[in-house]
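Lab notebook, bench 4. The sequencing result for the construct came back, and we need a structural model before the next group meeting so we can plan mutations. Quick request posted to the team channel:

Model the 3D structure of this chain.
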Amino acid sequence: MGGDGVGLYHCEGIVLRTRNIGEADRIVTLFTKEKGKIEAVARGARRPRNRLVGVTQHFSYLRALIFTGKSLDQLSQGELIKSFAPLRADLTKMAYATWWSELLDVFLPLAEVNTEVFLFALAGLVVLEKTTDPMLVSRAFELRLLRYLGYEPVLDRCVHCQETNPPFWAGFAPTEGGMLCSVCAKEAGEKLIPVRPAAVQALTGLYQADLRAVARQPVDLALGQELGRLLFAFIQNRAEKPFKSLSFLQSLLAWPPSEGS
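Done. Here's the predicted structure in token form:
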């Protein structure tokens, strides 16, 4: 996003996305601590010997000098703080990191500072780089990110009648954004996602858990997939669009088909 005038500014940012422009340039989407999400062109960044090649790789964390233009900012210089190269070397971790990056890119507006989310995203990449099985870490990241961004699903009560302890939960309604009791579900006009009480309890726990602590927990594959079906449906409903990175991730993990997913 261009500024009002011409100038320079420093920032620290994470590379969320790049796209090619012209013969040798890239437009880089950065999530920065100081400016929020920005876009800047990296001149010559597709040439092998260009000084910007190393700092414009996906997930890289860099210190940048940005030239502010009237239409599009320009990445003038970049100093790598952390490359996160292991995330690009491991296909599974790369798929998760790409999914996280697309989440941030879709839900974050341009030029809106959100230091809390920035620090959370950075910490998340550090944990993802070190974990052996990212599934539950990703569920915790997705859930916490939704809370930070104000899209928190309602899990502790019926989203319609506000009952906190109904005799029976009918399931999760993505369009409604929360759980429905058996009474209110009869009036709902959408297919619900079945959710076991243990899954709701797990989601509630993930709200509070530190990502490093989650990474040390044994991974329950069935639970991770159950939580994923709920969160993925909710996220895509809120975004009003499919996510290419999510489709790739599910394909890579041989995600089982399920109603509502």
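The chain has two domains: 7-83, 86-252.
Will bring this to the meeting.
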